[in-house]
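Here is one chain, start to finish.
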Amino acid sequence: MGKAMPGRLPANISQDELEMVKAMEETAVEMQKEHPDKDIIEHVNGVGSARNPSEDLLLVLREPLIVRPLEDTGLSWDEETMRVAIRLHDHANPKHHNHPALRVDSSHKLCLPCHDAFNYYCRYKAETPSTVGAATEGWPNSVIHHHNFASLTASRDIFKCDLCRCVADGLVGQYGEVLTYENMQRYRVEMCWRSKKEIDKTKMFFAIVESGTTKGTYNFNIVYIMDVWSAEQHAASFDLPFAADNAYDYDMDSSTSQQLAKHWLNLCLSDEDDQHKLCNAKIEGYMPTRLLDVASSEADGMLRLIVTEGLQHEAFITLSHCWGHNEQPILTTENLEERCLLGTSIDSLPKTFQDAVAVTRWFNVKWLCMYRPTLCPLKRHIVFSVASWIDCLCIIQDSGEDWLHEAKMMTPTYRQALLNISADATDAADSGLFRTRQPNDYVPLSLTVTGLGRSCRFTPALVFQFSWIYNAPTFERAWVHRERQLSRRVLHFTDDQMVWECCGTAGHGFASNIIPGKPLTSRAFGIDNKQHVHGLQQSRKEDLASDEEELHLSWDDICENISRKRLTVLTDMPVVLSSLAEDFAVLLQNKDQYLAGMWRYTLPRSLLWEAKQRRRRTAKLPYIAPSWSWMAVSCPTTFDARKSGFYQITYEVVEVQNIDLRYKHANDTFGPLRRGALTLQGCMRQLRFTLEGSSVDGDYVCKLFVTENGHQRLVGPHWHDYEGFLFELKCDRILEDPTLDCYCLFVSTKMVGSLGKSWTELSALLLKPDEQGEWHRIGIITFKDFYALQVRYAMTKPLTKSKTRGLWKKKHEQVREHQSASWNLYKAEKDKQRGRGEEEPKDAETDVWMPEPDPADLYAFDFGLDMEGLAVLTQETVVVV
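Its structure:
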């Protein structure tokens, strides 16, 4: 589901959702009348929403202040040349250039619109009463930042405004190349903030709005966010044990960088805050098979390979990087002795490896390990440039036995390294770690509110401060992702800053150039977090009764994340995931069974993953995993388990009778499979889809038929203008034929409720049989409400089209009547709880309004349904491979 520009409705929005949005906005207005301090409303994307769940849906209903009319800005848009016209002479009111409420203390270059907006913000903070409400009627908590995109692009490109460059980058990052002629005068930029008086720990939001259109859910989109700090609070983040008067104004290969990196490591090793227990856990005595001797290279500039057998344990550092495309020498059985005795000149190495040697010396560490188990093309039977030779210095490339051994040793090697260096800025080994940067990219914007005599600092919100991860080549690679997950500490070298990442808990896992002294969060990288397992391990120790369901949902997050990573060799995915699975098994106290990227506990629910960026059916894939595993499709995948409405109740309606796993390596139960078969028992239907094209969002436009009584019964099209999607077909490969014949095996039935409405959803696997009578997954399908009713029952005899429609309409009214009654019971119980002042239990939405059915009952929500003319489905058993 793509994002629509503000003021434009998504292509796949139904009339039902529009009514729901209107009701939400009316509720927001009433809420603000009762609670004036609730001046920024946050919308949550739930079930059935046409919006992307990742979108920031904040809403400021009040109209913004206009500090300077458009005609006084000195900017105009030339329709003929399609260019911004700038008047060099002053405008009519030169006194408006004055900004007495504001003093800029940092070196940032700000344009006139930025000065106007921040001057108003400083006046707002200094002159509004400490309480909010009627007294602030003339002081809206938002201001026009730019009247149009033409002004924004001129400030970015002509005036070189530091802040407008960030706002424009945020806009393009979310919507693509939208700063076009068609949009130049259509949209404006607003700056808004919470109306509370305090400066500390607040946020500044920048949103785009379609001018001339009423603001609302679909016409107010956040594109950039800044954290606002008091000077005192921000100064606490510079609690550094060395002089750093110019802490921002340096290149990453300076002595200040070295001091900062050593400071972060010392904080982690000392564990004075008692938050780095996981960081300091290690296996005593472990050493990799081969290491590079950095210490002795200082004498003669030669880097030698050392076989570590017989050596006592010493600290070593690892490197994560992308290979690049330049062909390099590799380590073989023939040149092993030469590499050990003579070594190689450091000056002849690619720049990234030279820099890695230098960074290792920062920490006075003797050993460096740089490898990845990438066998040369002859061994892997693939075509790609030979891996960088220094990777292969630690693995003998013409020895399959050595490769298998060292591949297994990757887990303890990265896990036991003192530190992992991550070259995140480039996809080539000859580009180096260090960059010369523009200081204002990471220096906080510093302003003084003259009316208060207080200074404040503005830094990019974490999601923007760490936005580099979405473009970093290393974050796209599955092997590098595995190395990062295994490593206890990672020092990232990015395009614009140096970032520390470790397994510290309670907000002690990150630091950066922007906030170098005291890390303030443990999830700066959002869902791409290395601490999925480590953080869960810590919480598990603190609370042995941790929710099993939440643990497995976290595993879904891990799999969604790693499915987006790239692999040169697709069959490597089970190996990449294996070490994380081993860690997770310990977390689960070895009471669960690992099943090709899933866990026995989550079956059958976890079978309902969805393939994104699907491959063509004609594309040949090697055997990676069984068809029921998300790894089989080798593309980004998502899981449905975290989606929820205001309430929902779900029952699984298929039984897993048997699991047959045959491992490629007999003793490796977390590694790749030769075969994996699930024996499932449940209700099935034979379906036919007639395809009519694809929607703008990539969904299939089609009609659904069920095979019944020897003929095809039309259920209907996939879309209804009022209801929206009546079924959603999600295939594992791109469909190219106009007709799809297959079977569905029902997996779960669900009742969902939202804003006084309720409906059922029925989810199923799409299967096709092979010549041996075994079944293969080809996708999933979700039937909503009316269609869910039609497919879970069979008609006892064929009827005319009109009588068929009448039959199902009558049955649907009966079901809806029951659903409405169930909702009223639920709502009444909630009202009673509120009236008694009782705190609602977490599971209240599922324990008061619906009788408890048989968990395997496909018809759990159909109480009171008249069965005349209908028949229930019989159970069948299938083996899915």
